[in-house]
Specification:
By secondary structure, the protein is α+β, with helices and mostly antiparallel strands. The chain has helices spanning 2-5, 13-23, 32-44, 68-91; strands spanning 11-12, 48-56, 59-66, 98-99, 103-104.
């Protein structure tokens, strides 16, 4: 979800937290410590990078952005999840379920 939150452009930490909560419709609530540990790992993996830094109210605000590798990884993961969801819906009773983007599954 962090990569998804950065897909529209760079964000600072609390912006990412808010974006993840919005995208997940409140199902995911990141804590700052969890987010920054994850951002450190994503940076080490080359998926995100620091876009810029600024001082706000005497505090450093660091903005993060997706790298091209991060964009590719996000697209691959989204395609994988979509394929898994399609397979699951296909195996369920088609009369009972529809896939929003595909309509009724048959």
């Amino acid at each position: 979800m962090i990569l998804t939150a950065l897909a529209d452009g760079s964000q600072h930490g609390y912006g990412i937290i808010g974006e993840v909560a919005e995208i997940s419709e409140g199902r995911i609530r990141l804590r700052a410590g969890t987010l920054y540990a994850a951002l450190d790992r994503l940076r080490a993996d080359g998926l995100v990078d620091v876009d810029r830094e600024e001082i706000v109210d005497n505090r450093l605000r660091r903005y993060y952005r997706l790298t091209s590798t991060g964009s590719t990884r996000l697209a691959e993961e989204a395609a994988r999840l979509q394929a898994n969801a399609t397979a699951a819906f296909t195996r369920l009773n088609p009369a009972l379920f529809t896939i929003p983007s595909l309509g009724a599954v048959s």
